[in-house]
Design brief:
This protein is α/β, with parallel strands linked by helices and 369 residues long. It has 12 helices and 9 strands.
Length: 369
Amino acid sequence: MQYLLIAIPTYNEAENIEALINAVFAAAPLKTEILVVDDNSPDGTAKIAEKLIPSYPGKLHILNRPEKQGLAAAYLAAFEWGLSRSYEAFLEMDADFSHNPKYIAEMLSALNSHDVVIGSRNIKGGGVEGWTMLRNLLSKGGSFYSRLALGCSIKDLTGGFNMWSRKALEKIGLKNIISKGYSFQIEMKYRAWNAHCPVKEIPIIFINRKKGASKMSKKIFLEALINVWRIRNAVASDSAINQFIKFAITGGLGTITNLIIFFLCADIGGLPEVQVSIACFLIAATQNYIINHNWSFKSSVEGRSLSIKKWFEFIAISLLGLGVNIFVMKTLLLHFALPYKVIAQAAGIAAGMVVNFISSKLFVFRKIR
């Protein structure tokens, strides 16, 4: 059984916190601890939680923060707190009894075969109680809209009852999170899904709070839907398709540099064509290496500097791509009656570029996890 940390952010939850902590410990497996992250609640939520510490020695922890900083900041602080210790599983949970503790054991069991487990309201067996038809429609519509915008298969992107393995949080990279509010839940799940973390949704019944005031508002909800596009752009910048587009643009810039230098040195300067061509290749390839390091594969090489070793590798891969280019071109010209030779050259360039990209991604700019 995994060592579980349950993160419960609070702000003015004095009416709920004691009963919730008792209910969680009554329902959760033995290897479970709770971290209450309180944003200096005026109603004394943290003090109530602190009084319970003697009842749960070594199992109940309080992280006091000086002011209200938002849900995303609270969860990120909790995750960082837990990752610096020996916890293997992490659960996000509201403090208002909307998330029933009875589901914890089932979620933890599912985490043995998955990296992310979502308490889902939007799959068969799941649902909500105590919401108006309008609020339910907005919630389901928001999740569906987010799925379409992100191209993500997760049914409940907006829900806040989620369990993560240590591996998933490390794979996501918490320092990469850009969301500050409600869209945090969407971004975390999308990043996990985009990183190919195994995800499982289990059905839950979400119960509207009985005590205290909800922090959700129309403004927060709309901001989250707008932020979906920021999330998509931020995460998609790491995708292979985006990297290939940037790689192709970089290659085009290298070709322009090559041609300009060749023209100035060979045509205007009258220098020997072969030597100039070799020099142009090396200069353009060096330019491409620098741009690819700082732009095309920036997310993959984060924290690493340009190096002579990687430059040599990139030059070698560029020569391999050139060889593929020539081979494909000559093969097409030999076996097909093409109306124009440039067609064969274009096919060769395309093939060489694909080989260059794959080789560069796998070797020169390989992401170190």
